[in-house]
Design goal:
The chain has 9 helices and 10 strands. By secondary structure, the protein is an alpha/beta fold. The structure holds zinc ion (ZN). Zinc ion (ZN) binds next to loops.
């Protein structure tokens, strides 16, 4: 199992521009502390390289990439009421996207079957032309597109279990039949997209799965939707690569949502997805998205990586 990270991901820090922002370096420090205490569960640690401009432009416009670079080089600032960048965010964001890219290169190159990117900023809200929802570049979308265009993957399944709808990834692949994007998310909260009846567009019709859940939902519903809706659709899709937008903000302690999962719930979802990927003979890679109660976040990542270490 391969764990990708980079110290630069700790330097994307809201203190100077949005003090009190929940997407802060301590999230990653808590994860790394918990994993270090467990000898990284036997995972091999690798340094996330910086994504190239070409990689970022697989899913983003050159204008968007340039705008983020220029904002950071000016010292950063607020992009919208939720989303910030500082000077160091340029390097952090390129390491986050580059880690996801390096992970799929390693997985599809046959180096290992399972990977996890412990990187930030997160990515699944970033759209082709704009940053939003704490996200600058869509890391998992870059990885999925790279897998298809350059690494020989025919079809990629993206399971997004972050509590928020991954609008950026969904929009980037909305018209595509070779990327199945499946979301479970709390309905009625940010970003407001992800209605059940939205199943994709044009040639991508049927390759978007949106499963909004009530704010008090527990693991019973999440596991049922994963096991009885997403994975059966995935089986028909026969992915050559399985990716997870691994946000952990559906945990009951999370301050940004009100679902009621436990850390062990993520371990159970992780096991279901791993067994599915093994059945498909497809490698499995996950990219960190949200999770804002730092202690719960660390517990959830440990539960996920433990499930994938067995
Ligand atoms: Zn989230």
């Amino acid at each position: 199992m391969l764990y990708f990270s980079h110290p630069a991901c700790l330097d994307h820090d809201p203190a100077a521009v949005m003090p009190g922002h929940p997407e802060r370096p301590e999230r990653l420090r808590a994860i790394e502390r918990a994993l270090a205490e467990r000898d990284w569960l036997g995972w091999e640690r690798r340094e996330a390289p910086a994504a190239s401009g070409e990689e970022l432009e697989l899913v983003h416009s050159a204008e968007h990439v340039r705008a983020i670079r220029e904002l950071c080089s000016r010292g950063g600032g607020a992009i919208d009421p939720d989303t910030y960048a500082v000077e160091a965010s340029w390097e952090a964001a390129r390491r986050a996207a580059g880690g996801a890219s390096a992970m799929v290169r390693a997985l599809l190159g046959g180096e290992d079957q399972i990977g996890f990117c412990g990187t930030r900023p997160a990515g699944h809200h970033a759209e082709r032309e704009r940053a939003m929802g704490f996200c600058l570049f869509d890391n998992i979308a870059v990885a999925a597109e790279l897998a298809i265009r350059e690494l020989g993957a025919e079809r990629v399944l993206i399971v997004d279990w972050d509590v928020h709808h991954g609008n950026g990834t969904a929009e980037i692949f909305r018209h595509r039949a070779d990327v199945l994007v499946a979301n479970i998310h709390q309905g009625g909260i940010f970003p407001g997209s992800g209605a059940r009846q939205d199943t994709g567009s044009g040639p991508g019709e049927g390759f978007t799965i949106n499963l909004p859940v009530p704010g008090d939902s527990t693991e019973e519903l999440w596991l049922e939707l994963l096991d009885e809706v997403i994975l059966p659709a995935g089986r028909d899709f026969e992915p050559s690569l399985v990716l997870v937008s691994a946000g952990f903000d559906a945990h009951r302690a999370d301050p940004l949502a009100s679902c009621a999962l436990e850390a062990s719930s993520f371990g159970r979802m992780a096991t279901l997805v791993r067994d599915f990927a093994a059945e498909m003979e497809a490698p499995l890679g996950a990219v960190l998205e949200g999770g804002y109660d730092v202690d719960a976040l660390a517990d959830c990542v440990v539960a996920t990586l433990e499930a994938w270490s067995e």
